[in-house]
Amino acid sequence: MSLPSGPTAPPIARIQQNVLAVGERHLLNWLCARMPRWVTPDLLTGFGMVGAFAIFAGYAASNWGVDWLWLAIAGYAIQWFGDSMDGSLARHRKIERPSYGYFIDHSCDGLATLLILAGMGASPYIRMDVALVALAGYLLLSIHAYLSARVLGEFKLSYLAAGPTELRLLLIGLTIAMMMLGYAPGLFGAVSGFDLFVGIVGAILVLLFIKQTLTTAKRLALTERR
């Protein structure tokens, strides 16, 4: 992933404090050093989007059989590889295109998030309205990260010690639970345990957005007052 630059943009600091950040960085550096020359950052970005479409297809097709969820799990692995490696490879080869990379990467991130949560909503396990609440929460927090990169010069890649990789692992675990438990109504009637879990995650994301917005607004007000 690349960050914006230009004569009016402040220097950008990447803030990444998720649990797996150090280990993941070592792995990505190891992979970058061994990546064939014909593999390009743009190719990896496209590969990541293939993974996102596979996730959507796996969840949607689970209406016809639980084994389709394996496709969603494989899609998460593909999407992680493409999304994590594209910017890493560009930086490793020193071929970054900051404005282009920032625009394409985060445009793809938004579409991938839509595909993942729409796929969940199209499955028999999670209601579409609940999935859309989680989508709104994730996109709100993404908007905050993009705005902070512009006004503060800080690009926050993790919240509550979790980043995209931890979130993917959480969703893989949720998908395995779907395979094991099925989609019979739970203790909450029309709202299943899966609905409750995804809804709570979505609510946490919205609350994080509100908290981060207030914190950033206070910080900017104090800075400009000085």
UniProtKB/TrEMBL annotation:
Gene Ontology CC annotations of this record: membrane
A biological-process GO annotation: phospholipid biosynthetic process
Pfam families according to UniProt: CDP-OH_P_transf
One example GO MF annotation: phosphotransferase activity, for other substituted phosphate groups
Keywords assigned by UniProt, alphabetized: Membrane, Transferase, Transmembrane, Transmembrane helix
Positions of transmembrane segments: 43-62, 102-122, 128-147, 167-184, 190-210
Listed InterPro entries: CDP-OH_P_trans, CDP-OH_PTrfase_TM_dom
UniProt name for this protein: CDP-alcohol phosphatidyltransferase family protein
Organism per entry: Sphingobium limneticum
